[in-house]
Fold each of these.
Amino acid sequence: MDPITALKIASTVGGLFYSNKLRQEAKGRNRELSRSIDKQVSNLEGTLPSIDEFTEGLIDLEMDESSVRSDRNFLDFLRQSEDLSSNLSETIKQSDLVFSGDLQNKFETDKFFLESNLRIREDAGSLNRERNLLNILTRKEDQKSSVANEIFSLKTQQMGLDV
């Protein structure tokens, strides 16, 4: 065998060994990267129950706040009704009985207005509560979707690794 052919063979064999060594090193780095991705995926999957727990807390808080708002509206109604009754009693005492029928009609009208106002405030409170709950649940699903997309992206990257 002539020396040039032997040199070409030796160079080719050396290149193969070097290429194999580089491929093994790359596989080692890819295995490390794959383990890192597994940890990230595990951490992200661990956040899903936290999102659910946090959402439950927000829902409980909204329900409590809604109840407080409803109680406050009812107390305002009671206070205004009491004030209206007191004013009627004082006015009847101070005026003669001829005008008491007109005062009673005005009282009934004002009382009806207060009751209507309470119903409107209760309905508005219910709508606000429903809107707030919908926003909470929408944010929850957005967050869970974002985490799922991130997990998918990481797993896709991991599938492209030669380990």
Amino acid sequence: MSNNVEFPKAPKTPLFVCFMSVSQKIPSNTVLSGVVEHTPFVSEIYAFIPYLDLPNYALDEERAMAFVTVHGTRGWLSRGDIETYFDDKYDWLETKPSPNAYTHFMKMLNEAGWAVTPIKWENIDWEQHLRKRTDDGDIDLIPIEWFKGFHHVNVCTFCGHTNPRRMMEREQPCEACNFDPKKDEPLVHADDPVGDSNLFSENFSDEWS
């Protein structure tokens, strides 16, 4: 084999991202709908991830969307809370002087192995976003990588669906494909790397956990 032959490289993982920031102070007595570890503060930047799979209740009851902050904190918030307390900052990627906080955030995501496509909030296809996973025979590797080490969910290692993790509850069969982690053999182990992505481990802070 010639020394000039290179091994084929895996493409980056495609990801739609809506960059937003908190537009107003959230009252201290407000109970946000979703999974969020702290009350978002004014001007804090969030990257919302449309079309990323979430537990069925999060899509049905909360109409929720996953997010990550610039510090690596993950979770999800309801559509109502996002539209009440956040402003779309898509124009900062297009018309504002670069670099800025949003172009820096996108660079961090790209360097972590994601091929980011910015999207305006108004252009999100909510019918597609809220569509629940079924036993379609496919495996979605993105939630397995995205929610690695995130203790609020159990991602199915057979189909990649994001299942809820309840307090004091052992892993249950997947709500999408009925895979039973107690007796079935997984296709992917949760700790295995997906492609060559190191996710955010070297680009984000230790809050990524």
Amino acid sequence: MIPHKLKLHNFMCYREEQSLDFSGIHLACLTGDNGHGKSALLDAMTWALWGRARARRDDELIALGESEMWVDLEFGLGPQRYRVWRQRSKRGRGQTDLHLYIWNEGSEDWQLLDEGGINERQALIIRTLRMEYDTFANSAFLLQGRADSFTVKTASERKQILADILGLNRYDLYEEQAKEEIRARKERAIRVQGEIGGIDHALARRGEFEAQLAGARHAVTQAVEALRAAEAEQATLRLEVQGLRGQAHQLADLRNRMARAERDLAEMRDQYNAAQRRLTAYEQVLAEQEAIETGWRALQDAREQEAAYNTKLRRDVELQAQLLKLDQAIQRARDGLQMEQAALCVPLTGTLAGELNHDDVTVALLRFRVTNSGAWPSAAASGSKRPPSASSRRRSWPRHRPSWHRWRNSRRAAMPSPQTSARSASVWQRSNPTQKGCATRDRPSKRKVN
């Protein structure tokens, strides 16, 4: 084992992280005053590899005032490079962590070799070094103050240390392997002797075995003949089975056809019964043909009457709308007259009263027309139900009501001039001293219009 690099932190007197590179060094000498950490570097190496140093407990190796420490050692063993990292912490009941790495030339990185827990990893390191801590401390490494540790040991302990150093334990392994081989060969010889004895015993019964062989051959011949007969019979039975299966399929097909035929027959019977019921119903309908035709004619008459009533109803609605328009026009005319009379401040004349009475007569005639389903008085008197046409209504309209222009012109002609109106108003007021203002509300009595 050749150390290459050493890193440590909070290990004994080394509080800050320290790093030592041993590359290219074949012989080294550590010098310095007592307590400067010369032996601490060697203890760091042994503690990293085996977890043991001069201290009795691992927590004593941690620097004062600190709670954890770690050591990282890189070394070479033969053609391989290894790295061991061990850590110790005071937290809780104390915790230790250990990892072993090997350098991978392909990826140029460290590859972890951990197996199991701490004890399994420590055993892997010992197998890799092929050396325990005691062997190392009594051969290549002398502890400070313990240079005579080898001489004070017992003869068996010194023998064991020298055997570990010189590798004599492999001869013990060879001896154990030789004993195992001898034991295996003896067991094999015993088995061979037993097999030879069985062969000799069988040779002594050779005649018996030959007779049994002849009987067995005869039995085999008979068995072969029986097998051939059985195969022939089996082939015949297979043909019969195939025929029976074909017949079974045909029988099943016939049964299915019969079932379908029965279902079709039942459906046809149902259809026949339904047809019989429909025929009976048709016969009953034919028996009532006269009553149905009579009802049909009555229905046609009712529909014609309903159409006539609907026509009259639509005409009535139209006449009601015309009547409403006429009432509105009359009301507007009255309002206009009242406003003009108020402006002129003259009483109503007999001609104006007659015109208003003439309007009332016109409204009465229109109401008579609506009441008698749209017939004009002349048509109703003659007994004709057909209303007059639009042209006849325009020709007969002046007989029922003068046009608005004629009425307005006659009113203007009947009205006096402003001077005459003023003199008439003053004379009327002198003759009626109790009345003041315009007599706009005094109207002459309605005269009867023939």
Amino acid sequence: MNQQTVVALTQRLDALERDNRRLRQLMAVLVVFATALVIITQLVHVADAQSSRLVVQSLTIRDATGVDRIVLNADQRTTDGRFIPSLEIKDERGAPHLSLGLDSTSAAIAGFFGRLGPENSYTPSVVVSFNQLTNEGSVTVYDSNGDGLGRIP
């Protein structure tokens, strides 16, 4: 090989090494940029997930056997057409044991169920109600047939 060929090959090799070094630097910058982009995207996603909210009219939570155990409703209507919220907590058969809600006068009601009544259904044992508008409250006790035994105004 003559001197000119060696010089030409050396120059081409230097240019190739310089291009290769620039390409590696560019790849490093792209990797850093892509990593930063992924991290920022994840941070934004986490922030969105933390500020999210679930909006439904009714929510039913079932156990592993498919029985409704907790029912939250906001779409029950009163006789005059107003919507009233309610929450029911049920046993393993789906029978209610605790019911919280509002009646048609917007009085808060807590119903405690525990007696097996007619037709194998639970009837309320005690119902507590309180109306904030009128400052009136009451406690009503029921027998196993659902008949009121007494009421404390």
